[in-house]
Write a structure and sequence with these properties.
Blueprint: H1 2-10, H2 18-34, E1 39-44, E2 47-51, H3 56-64, H4 69-78, E3 84-88, H5 94-103, E4 106-110, H6 114-126, E5 133-136, E6 139-140, E7 145-150, E8 167-173, H7 175-179, E9 186-189, H8 195-200, H9 203-207, E10 213-217, H10 229-238, E11 242-247, E12 252-255, E13 263-267, H11 270-279, E14 284-285, E15 288-289
Parallel strand pairs: 3-4, 3-9, 4-5, 6-8, 9-10
Antiparallel strand pairs: 1-2, 7-8, 10-13, 11-12, 11-13, 14-15
Helix pairs in contact: 1-2, 2-3
Length: 290
């Protein structure tokens, strides 16, 4: 609880109205206790989101406007209508909804856990964007096959280790196979430590010069499978990507020496990306624009 309150009051979109943010937190706690039904949250000016009790990332959007402000702000400023975004580890679809309902980009959304996938498709239907999205109830890896997944950990469901029980079997394909001749401009990869295998199945995608940026979570979870995330960094650098921080208010990129312990934005062709970010229309979230 203390960590949640610290996160809420320090969030960039709450700093000018911390009291209002705390009121939203209390209101959500009350609502979640009296009803189990999903709540329709006004996400951005053009998008909305079903949110249910226990959905960590989604409730972060309720409390803060954009749960992952810097990364979501980057996506909102980079993408234009008609672009292709690939949301790998889409969960209930926060990034998918921002990309497609708010911006008008095409999105391929990959979510392996069936119950979570159902929530993703519900959010796609809620926003009436089925014609712009391709939801896929699969996992991604270095080759086609089947993997065991946990199913009870909300946003941190992952490829199961040998010690984990209460699992489900999920079909697996490669990113190269599902994209084929497609030309994405942006990938988001949030697969709880399995990023190494996703990228091992994406050689053609990484070589495709249409791909300008990757938002990837490198928080040490790869250690559960014996992966060294520094090797992911080195692989992306070898393909011409470099890590950056982004300030959506100032619309400025700042080079990093390496990846952070949360999401990191990797960019190729920084000049192209910077021009896109600067020229993007303003995004409105609640009473703020950036």
């Amino acid at each position: 609880m203390i960590n949640t309150l610290k996160f809420i009051t320090s969030h960039p979109l709450n700093k000018s109205n911390k009291l209002g943010a705390l009121v939203r937190f209390v209101q959500w706690q009350f609502r979640a206790r009296i009803s189990k039904a999903p709540f329709v949250h006004a996400f951005t000016e053009k998008s909305k989101l079903y949110v249910s009790k226990g959905e960590t990332g989604a409730t972060g959007n309720v409390y803060c406007g954009l749960h992952e402000f810097y990364d979501m702000g980057f996506l909102l400023h980079l993408l234009k209508p008609g672009d292709l975004f690939v949301d790998i580890g889409a969960n209930i679809g926060s990034y998918t909804i921002l990309a497609t309902a708010e911006i008008g980009a095409h999105t391929i959304s990959v979510e392996p856990v069936p119950a979570t996938f159902k929530r993703l498709t519900n959010n796609i239907d809620l926003n009436k964007i089925a014609d712009l999205t391709l939801p896929m109830n699969i996992a991604l890896g270095n080759k086609p096959g089947v993997l065991r997944f946990t199913k009870s950990f909300d946003t941190v469901n992952h490829v199961a280790t040998d010690q984990e029980t209460d699992t489900i079997d999920v079909p697996v394909d490669t990113l190269d196979n599902i994209l084929k001749q497609s030309n994405p401009i942006l990938l988001k990869i949030d697969v709880e430590g399995f990023e190494t295998e996703v990228l091992n199945g994406a050689d053609n995608v990484l070589q495709n010069q249409s791909l300008k940026a990757i938002i990837i979570e490198l928080n040490g979870s790869g250690g559960r499978y014996g992966y060294d995330e520094l090797q992911i960094h080195n692989k992306l650098v070898s393909h011409g990507f470099a890590p950056f921080d982004y300030d959506p208010f100032a619309r400025t990129l700042s080079a990093r020496a390496s990846f952070s312990d949360a999401n990191t934005i990797y960019i190729r062709d920084a000049q192209f990306v910077a021009e896109r970010l600067k020229s993007a229309r303003k995004i409105k979230v609640r009473d703020q624009q950036f």
